[in-house]
Amino acid sequence: xxxxxxxxxxxxxxxxxxxxxxRVRPPYGEPRYLTAxxxxxxxxxxxxxxxxxxxxxxxxTAYAATGSPNPAVWTNRVETVINSTQPSPTPEQEPxxxxxxxxxxxxxxxxxxxxxxxxxxxxxxxxxxESPQPEDHSGTTSGAxxxxxxxxx
Amino acid sequence: xxxxxxxxxxxxxxxxxxxxxxxxxxxLTALLSDPAAAEDCAQDAFVQAYHAWSRWRPNAPAExxxxxIAVNRAISYRRSARLRTVGEVLMxxxxxxxxxxxxxxxxxxxxxxxxxxxxxxLAAAIVLRHYHGYxxxxxxxxxxxxxxxxxxxxxxxxxxxxxALESPFSLDAPTAFQAGKRDSYVKH
Lengths: 153, 188
Known about the structure:
heterodimer, A: 0% strand, rod-shaped, B: mainly alpha, Butyryl-CoA Dehydrogenase, subunit A, domain 3
């Protein structure tokens, strides 16, 4: 580091400048860049810390839900929950058969509402008219009545 | 100056700090009157240099590179300090200003005071050349200017410094010079 230009300052002044600056004692504390670098390292570890925390929360939740610390139990529980929530195709195909026996009206929007009342009204009418005749004449139409008198007598 | 430094190497930066911190601090002492401010700016400069250490190119001397950051810090500090001073002057309009401490004035080296009165870029050129022994190329790297600009600044800084020290109305008359020696220096 040699000076290439001729000095404009007087040598005495240069010597004085050196003497005065040499007299300055720099404060030797802890370098600030060492402490300024610490947050950077912490930020680098932040994703790892987040992953560990997330795994811990998931494990605690699974333990609380299943009551078992075994991860195999957690997976079984998850499988059963998923299977139970899957919709089965059979209930949507069966309604046409059950509607003839008096199904709720919500399941039979495609059928005519007039047809079921006519079919249901006729069958009860015929037994009511036919049953009194055998009871009046013989009295042996029901099984309970025929079996009970014989042991008593 | 700065030979053997590897960009991004932590050990090399520690070594650079040990070598360059006292020199950078002394440069800032010549630019800033407050020693605490000089320490703050020097430390901040090394923090900034540490974060940019992996991007440093070995074709420029490492110490000159840190000097460049530190001088820029000092310029920013002086600018904000000047704004603070203007604010204080406006606040105390009509009231007498606080008198300077005579003991501090007596112990204050006049040459450093004259240097601090110069624009920081000129004062930095003087210190880098005549205290640290940088050549024009290294000063150009440290100040981020061309070598021709460095020559101009050195000439201008020397003239202004000499004029400030020659002034018969200067309150900070040199105490280290005897009268005869001072007269002979003035004739130069």
